[in-house]
Write a structure and sequence with these properties.
By secondary structure, this protein is α+β, with helices and mostly antiparallel strands. It folds into two domains: about 230 residues, no CATH class; about 120 residues, CBS-domain. It is built from twelve helices and eight strands. It has a four-stranded mixed β-sheet. Strands 1-2 form a two-stranded antiparallel sheet. The longest helix has about 30 residues. The two termini are about 30 Å apart. Bound molecules: zinc ion. Zinc ion binds next to helix 2.
C-alpha cells in the first residue's frame, strides 16, 4: 500500500479541523489537549477506515482476476490503481459495491461499540470519538455511493449502463458527466458556505469538488485512450522505411549525415535490413575525435536491447506502456529480425489526439463497438 504524500498534509489539516472546529462544538467543556488527542485518534481511525474500504475493493478485484497495483490514499477515499478496466459489467458492479458495503459494516460495528461505551462510565472523549468515527464511516459509504464517476456509485451506474447497452464508452461518458456535475455542485456549495460564514467547511467542499471533477475527467480520458490504442496495431502507427545506418559508415559520416541531418540521438544499424545494433551520441563521444573519419560505426554500436524493440502486431497501448517502463521515446519495430519501422512516442500521441478529436464528435447514441458482448 502506498500513502500519497498529500495524505500527510491532509491528515494534519483534518486533525486541525477536528480539534479546533468540530469537537469543541460536539462536546463542550473538555480540555484543548483532549480535543487534539481525539482529533489524532479520529484521523488515524479514518485512515484505517479508508484502507478497510479499499481492501474490500481489492479483495473482490482479485477474485475476478484483476490485479490492483496499489492503493493511493487521497482526500475522502483511496484510489485503487488498476492496470486494466474490469472485464465485464457484473464484475465492475460487485467490485464497486464492495467498498461502500464494507464501510457500512464498519460503521455499524463502531455504533455498536459506541452504545456499549455509552452505558459505561468511560471517558466522554472516547464515546465522542467512537460516535464520530462511526458517523464518518457512514458518510464515507454514502459519499462514495453518489452516482459520480469515478466514485463507487458512479462506477455502479456505469456498470449498469454498460450492462444495459453493451457500450463501455457511452456508459463511461454518462457516468463521468455525473462526476463533473457533482464536482461543480460541491464547489458551488463550498462557495455558498464560505459566503455564509462557514470558512473551513466551505474550503473542504471546494477541495473535494475539485478532486472529483479532476478524477472524472482523467478517468474518462483514460478509458477513451485505452479504447483507441488497444485496437491499434503498431504497424499502423509506425514510420515505415526507417532511416538506418549501415555498419561500415564512418563515425564522421554518421555524425554529419545522420545525427545532424535527421535530428535524432540514436539510430538503428542494419545489414540487409536486419537489425544488428544501435548507435547514438553517447557511443560517439567515447571515441577520440581524430579517429572519427576512419572508425566504422559497427565498432561502437550496441546490441539492440529487448525493451527497445517491438513487434508490428503488438497493440499501441502495450507499446506505450513499454516506452513508459523503459524510458525510450522511440522503439524499433522488428519483424522476424527485419527492421520494418520506427515507432515514436510523438507519432503515437499525434494519432491519439486526432482519433480522440474524432471520437469526441461522435454522437452519444450507443453504437456497436468491439466492447459489445464482451464476456
Ligand atoms: Zn470505494
Amino acid at each position: 500500500m502506498w500513502i500519497d504524500a498529500s495524505w500527510l498534509l491532509l491528515a494534519a489539516l483534518i486533525s486541525w479541523t477536528l480539534a479546533e472546529a468540530v469537537f469543541p462544538g460536539v462536546a463542550p467543556h473538555l480540555a484543548r489537549t483532549t480535543y487534539w488527542w481525539m482529533a489524532v485518534a479520529t484521523t488515524i481511525g479514518l485512515l484505517f477506515s479508508i484502507v478497510f474500504h479499499e481492501m474490500a475493493h481489492s479483495l473482490v478485484a482479485r477474485r475476478y482476476g484483476m490485479p490492483i497495483r496499489g492503493i493511493t490514499l487521497f482526500i475522502f477515499g483511496g484510489v485503487a490503481e488498476m492496470d486494466e478496466e474490469p472485464p465485464n459489467a457484473k464484475s465492475e458492479l460487485v467490485m464497486a459495491a464492495a467498498g461502500p458495503a464494507a464501510s457500512f459494516v464498519l460503521a455499524a460495528a463502531l455504533f455498536l461499540l459506541f452504545h456499549l461505551a455509552k452505558g459505561s462510565s468511560g471517558p466522554e472523549a472516547l464515546k465522542v470519538t467512537l460516535w464520530y468515527l462511526a458517523s464518518l464511516n457512514g458518510i464515507l459509504a454514502l459519499f462514495n455511493l453518489v452516482p459520480a464517476f469515478p466514485l463507487d456509485g458512479g462506477r455502479m451506474l456505469r456498470a449498469a449502463l454498460w450492462f444495459w447497452r453493451g457500450d463501455l464508452i457511452w456508459a463511461t461518458r454518462i457516468a463521468a458527466a455525473g462526476g463533473d456535475f457533482f464536482g461543480v455542485a460541491l464547489i458551488v456549495l463550498g462557495v455558498v458556505s464560505i459566503m455564509t460564514g462557514d470558512l473551513v467547511g466551505g474550503i473542504w467542499r471546494i477541495l473535494i469538488g475539485m478532486f472529483v471533477r479532476g478524477a472524472a475527467d482523467a478517468s474518462l480520458q483514460q478509458v477513451l485512450t485505452r479504447n483507441v490504442l488497444e485496437s491499434l496495431p503498431v504497424s499502423r502507427v509506425m514510420t515505415r522505411q526507417p532511416i538506418a545506418v549501415s555498419p561500415n559508415v564512418s563515425i564522421a559520416d554518421f555524425i554529419e549525415n545522420f545525427i545532424y541531418g535527421h535530428h535524432h540521438r540514436c539510430f538503428p544499424v542494419t545489414s540487409d535490413e536486419t537489425l544488428i545494433g544501435t548507435v547514438g551520441t553517447s557511443q560517439v563521444t567515447e571515441i577520440n575525435r581524430a579517429e572519427w573519419p576512419t572508425t566504422p560505426v559497427h565498432h561502437i554500436m550496441l546490441a539492440p536491447r529487448s525493451d527497445e524493440v517491438v513487434g508490428p502486431e503488438a497493440d499501441a497501448l502495450a507499446a506505450l506502456a513499454q516506452m513508459q517502463r523503459s524510458g525510450y521515446s522511440r522503439l524499433w519495430v522488428v519483424d522476424h529480425g527485419r527492421l520494418v519501422g520506427v515507432l515514436s512516442l510523438h507519432d503515437v500521441l499525434e494519432l491519439l489526439s486526432a482519433k480522440l478529436e474524432i471520437e469526441q464528435s461522435r454522437t452519444d447514441r450507443p453504437v456497436e463497438s468491439h466492447h459489445a458482448g464482451r464476456p
